[in-house]
Amino acid sequence: MAEEMEIDPQQRRYEALRGSGRLLSGTRPRSLRESIDSLAGGSHELGGRTDVYGDGVVEVLEERVAGLLGTEAAAFFPTGTMAQQVALRCWAGRTGDRTVAMHPLAHPEVHERFAYAQLSGLRSVWPTTERRMPDAEEVADFAEPFGTLMLELPLRDAGFLLPTWTELEATVEAARARDAVVHLDGARIWETTPHFDRSLPEIAGLADSVYVSFYKTLGGISGAALAGPAEFVAEARTWRHRYGGQLYQQWPAALSALAGIERELPRLGEYVAHAKVVAAALAEAVAEVPGARVFPEPPHTHQFQLWLPYPAETLVEAGLRMAEETGQALFGGWREPGLPGISYTEVTVQAPALEWSPQEVRSGVAALLERLK
After folding, report:
1. Where in the numbering of this chain does the Aromatic amino acid beta-eliminating lyase/threonine aldolase domain appear (predicted)?
2. Where residue 323 sits, what CATH number does that domain have?
3. Is the residue at 45 inside a domain?
4. Residue 170 is part of a domain; what is its CATH number?
């Protein structure tokens, strides 16, 4: 008797979300055809030639990013990991100090396999281990010297947390007083403007360099940019080539990034505002569940965490069955950060979530909790 074929979990999730009429977190996944068609949906002229080693539409994107951030220049990178490593390496060479102050939950510490140390010989120090950005006093009084302070805005793995504008200014000033440069991991800097009540150039202007992502928040295929002074960006381009980032053609990623800037960037304020509505409704829905919580409440951006006292595998299965059977998809993946039976998911409020009223959010969560009993 032929063995029953196992269903690929990724394919099952793809089909469940594609088949759902309503999504609370994230967006409906596109098919290959839809992804290809979306590249032609922006305003960029498609009658010209494709890019070659970073000219053409890639240059258009770089100029657009520099204009949005108010920097002298910007360079496109195929990945954010490469952009971050190049930025830190360049600043280490310019300051003569290979020590980088960052948070233990920062992206290079958690998600990049310590590439800054393995590839560039850099070392990190932690001004704080609290689940927040280091404050001015911690930076000023830190016992060891460092050449670069890297700040992740928002601090994703701590719950997409942001300081106040006053706190951010003070922390940057404390680094300057130590003759350190400041680099912003701004993968998601796009959605920080409502919280800070400042423009992108004002936020980016606090730092010496900024990295931004095109697939996080903006919904691009892939890619990132490193922005800052023209001389610094020129050096970064040299290291990009050495790291293998000088691709022959990158027009699909560049076109999707430009489309994301056009479509998503103007809507982020609306997403951030509705995230507060969704978070409040979720908090009400899980108020009677021991150990459940929304964090932070209210959210600082359009993303936040929801914690529930169930194993991740149980929550994933219940959510998939609900999507398959009712056409309502609430959340994406779940993670167990260390304590068995306690899991969290990252809620991302985008266009599909705008259709959900607080009552509908509460009803949807009630239906999910019922399946968990």
Report:
1. 52-292
2. 3.90.1150.10
3. no
4. 3.40.640.10
- pTM score, two decimals? 0.95
Give me the domain span that covers residue 326: 9-29+266-372
Cα–Cα nearest to 258, from 32, 7, 14, 60: 60
Sort 223 into a burial class: Cβ within 10 Å, 0-12 / 13-18 / 19+: buried
Give domain status of residue 86, yes or no: yes
Looking at residue 227, its pLDDT comes to 98
CA distance 297 to 281: 11
**pLDDT for res 4:** 52
Residues in the chain with pLDDT values less than 70: 1-5
User: What is the total count of domains within the chain?
Assistant: 2
**Residues paired with 258 in a beta bridge:** none
pLDDT at position 2: 44
Residue 309 lies inside a defined structural domain of this protein: yes
Scanning the chain, the segments in alpha helix (DSSP H) are 9-18, 32-38, 57-69, 80-95, 107-110, 115-120, 136-141, 165-177, 193-196, 200-204, 230-242, 251-263, 268-285, 312-326, 358-372
Whole-number pLDDT of residue 1: 40
CA 270 and chain centroid, separation: 18
